[in-house]
């Protein structure tokens, strides 16, 4: 079975990443934090047993931390996060992939083991979700496109996970939930993670 991971990233530009965090700790420190998160995401995914696709928010960068020999580079399209994710899934399913997982780039607790587990669970489930502590999700895995999962959501709010689960239930799709992990969106998130490292 062909499988692929979609990695959604924001181009690491000053003043354009992690805006909630930036309001608390400043643009320069936020860019440093986000750059470290990008490197963690790259290191977590570079040796996965699947095809790897990096979808940039603004423009594709040829020479950066994402080695073109390991990661195919694409550009996000769509008016909102839901549209952009749906179109990315659509593109890869059209290419013949039967298992597709999407992640962001702001979850320092994410490991390759968790991602491998998601792919394994897609053998017996239609949907795999990695819930985050803020009410969203850090990973979504599908065996075929389910457009309803990307529509009518209040993205970047604590309602996203609950709304997504409602859709999965309504569509009568089987689902599996991975371990809950934390994203870094605020100074409190960052401080908690730094304390864990200590």
Can you summarize this structure?
The chain has a single domain, classed as Spore Coat Polysaccharide Biosynthesis Protein SpsA, Chain A (Alpha-Beta Complex). It has six helices and seven strands.
Structural account:
Strand 5 and strand 6 (137-142) form a beta hairpin. Helix 1 (19-25) crosses helix 2 (27-45). The longest helix is centred in the N-terminal third of the chain and has 19 residues, at 27-45. It contains six helices and seven strands; from the N terminus they run βααββαβαββαβα. It has 198 residues and is α/β, with parallel strands linked by helices. It is globular. Strands 3-2-1-4-6-5-7 form a seven-stranded mixed beta sheet, sandwiched between helices. The model has no long low-confidence stretch (mean pLDDT 95). The N and C termini lie far apart (41 Å). It has one domain (3-197): Spore Coat Polysaccharide Biosynthesis Protein SpsA, Chain A (Alpha-Beta Complex).
